[in-house]
Design goal:
This protein is of the alpha/beta class. The protein has 10 helices and 13 strands.
């Protein structure tokens, strides 16, 4: 969710810095919106936030650039506040899914560092911790960019929430040993049928969870659901630079010209997901019906 709110602030900043003529503002702002929308193709929150800012602009075209910037800034701040409230609600709904003494596995970062505060997947973790339900969190390091190690493990450690860092390949062994009670991950885009794009490696965890009969949950705000897409095959997947895989934190780990496959995200099909936790409640299969119902409330 944070990516959308940051983009919203970016729109306000673009107008704040505008020093051209009033009649040229529209062209300038459209270019700014296009520039921001091109940054990340997979995360739907980005596009929804930009569309919301575009709507505010269209409703206030008679304003001067300075006045418009103030209105846009106010909207961005509202989005920030809404996101924190949504994450706290997600945390409460998610914690209700666990009875007591739970050990949760997660991947990437869906916490306060990836949202405006509290977190989605880590919001559930925080709620469990606050209610005395949490035993520990296992954080996958999340190759190749190591968001789990650099962000999630650090964030939880800072908040004195018990966390153990593992490599991505260790998850199955932990499940086999009976050390995981639930998997909780965030989402970058959810389609109308519940298919979910999230950080690469999420699909593998879903498959492992189903095999080991461990509940697999998605935690995300309603703004992450793209009802315009019927299924996950329609989600655009971002591919990143090969050197992310050839190196670890800038240190080469293989030959410099090795071929690399580096998608930033994968798609977990809806039938591997036990529930999708939103700020409006918990959806279960059939997601095409339950997500639409939540959207109407």
């Amino acid at each position: 969710p944070l990516i959308g709110v940051v983009a919203a602030y970016g729109v306000a900043l673009a107008v704040w810095n505008y020093r051209g003529r009033q009649e040229e503002l529209a062209e300038y702002l459209e270019k700014a919106l296009e520039l921001l929308s091109d940054t990340r193709p997979t995360a739907v929150n980005l596009f929804q936030a930009l569309e919301r800012m575009r709507q505010v602009w269209h409703e206030n075209q008679v304003l001067s650039p300075d006045q418009l910037a103030s209105v846009l800034l106010q909207e961005a701040r509202a989005m920030f506040t809404e996101d924190v409230a949504a994450n706290q609600a997600i945390g409460r709904y998610g914690a209700d899914l666990f009875l007591d003494q739970v050990r949760i596995l997660t991947i990437c970062n869906a916490g306060a560092l990836a949202t405006c505060g509290y977190g989605t997947a880590l919001g559930v973790v925080r709620s469990c911790f606050e209610q005395g339900k949490l035993v520990s969190v296992y954080a996958c390091e999340t190759r190749p960019v190591l968001q789990g190690a650099r962000l999630t493990a650090w964030e939880l450690h800072q908040d004195s929430i018990p966390v153990t860092l593992i490599t991505d390949g260790m998850a199955g062994a932990l499940m086999q040993a009976g050390e995981i009670d639930g998997v909780m991950v965030g989402a970058d885009r959810i389609t109308a049928n519940g298919d979910t794009a999230n950080k690469i490696g999420t699909y593998s965890l879903a498959v492992l969870s189903r095999y080991h009969q461990i509940p697999f949950y998605i935690a995300a705000p309603m703004s992450t659901i793209d009802f315009s897409l019927a299924c996950g095959q329609q989600i655009p997947i971002e591919y990143r630079e090969p050197d992310e895989v050839r190196t670890v934190m800038g240190t080469p780990i293989t030959v410099s010209d090795i071929e690399v496959h580096n998608p930033a995200f994968d798609v977990t099909p809806h039938y591997l997901i036990d529930a999708i936790i939103t700020e409006k409640g918990v959806a279960r299969a059939p997601y095409s019906e339950t997500l639409a119902e939540l959207n109407r409330t």
